[in-house]
Amino acid sequence: MTVSFRTAGESHGPALVVILEGIPAGLPLLADAVNVELARRQLGYGRGRRMQIESDTVEFLSGVRAGQTIGSPIAMMIHNRDWKNWQEIMDPAPREGDPALRRRPVTRPRPGHADLAGMLKYDREDARDILERASARETTARVAAGAVCRVLLSHFGVALGSHVVHLGGIDATLPDPRPSPLNAAADPSPVRTLDADAAERMVAAIDAAKASGNTLGGIVEIIATGLPVGLGSHVAWDRKLDGRLAAALMSIPAVKGVEVGLGFAVARRSGAEVHDEVHGDPSRVLAGGVRRDTNRAGGLEGGITTGEPLVLRAAMKPIATLMRPLATVDTQTGESASAVAERSDVTAVPAMGVIAEAMVAIVLAQAWMEKFGGDSLAETSRNVRGYLEQVGRGFGRPGDA
Length: 401
Ligand code: EPS
Prior knowledge:
The chain is of the alpha+beta class. The chain has helices spanning 31-42, 50-53, 87-90, 115-122, 128-134, 139-155, 182-186, 196-211, 241-250, 349-372, 377-392; strands at residues 4-8, 15-21, 58-62, 64-65, 68-69, 74-79, 159-167, 170-171, 218-225, 255-260, 278-280, 290-292, 300-301, 304-305, 310-316, 327-329, 336-338. The chain is globular, with a radius of gyration of 23 Å.
């Protein structure tokens, strides 16, 4: 059994739901562990009024009893408070007088959004049928699934964090080493960055973008520590963990690029400036009894974790809803028009970091359960202990027969 999940729900529908499978029985799990992550996702300077309407909390519908998982699918629901304002427009049942009553169709698709390609593909005359699901509101349900995966990983000493390294043309100066725990340092910042001076300039850039009806993108770094060597595999393309992490991050709305370790910079350096030299170090059990001088590989070699911190970056384009709209075509008339300008965010880069942590947690939990298996937490723990005993023995020492 591996870990899998599926979300459902529209941005202005009654609720978002997610079903998460493959979490072993016996994992202590309280709603608070999910709610903390949902709250983190709602923060960040540059969000629109919607975040004042919502106050996301999870309801467990199945899979958890008396504060523990029971091995069955974990179904979670998060209500959309804004739904009360959209009941007529989002009503699943036809209403008298349709379609006139349900007017306000969106026919001026936003360049850069799923609106236009989605309308053509799904043969819909109202872009709302596309944008409701394409909305980043859906990431709430992913963060809920990621929060549970995070609880599983943290049981084994794996910690995840993220911070904003670039926003709207402003680079943060990065402390080396990064603070630990990372989120305790990043979360208090209004833009989740570790550089207070850059944060001020980022906030000013967001204000300026808002004043001119524009939007901003940025880059976040995600770090996972405490992983053992050996998650993922080199043996098949779809088992390589770097590819799976990149796919998961690229699936986040508006993410357009992913880097592992040095990322694109590797192409400009020689081999001696890219690869991490290795020495024996029996004290480093998680890394298999070795130490690397550097971690330019970002914790992955051959699609397998090395036991060094996993370091990823995700780049987000500016949000496609501009209050000073771009040129588009009106799909009802075929005439040139200005794109629809609905209430939205100026930037959601700080939130994207939280969502990226969730996606990374889900992929790592998948890889964890593939590697160690187990229907109960006790069984998984036994398997982890046995494996760490094996790799912790290091090289040049006798193993089991
Ligand atoms: C979004 C547009 C805004 C954002 C929304 C994503 O929502 P609305 O159209 O209701 O103002 O606030 O993000 C969320 C609701 C959220 O929870 O992150 C979009 O079009 O993607």
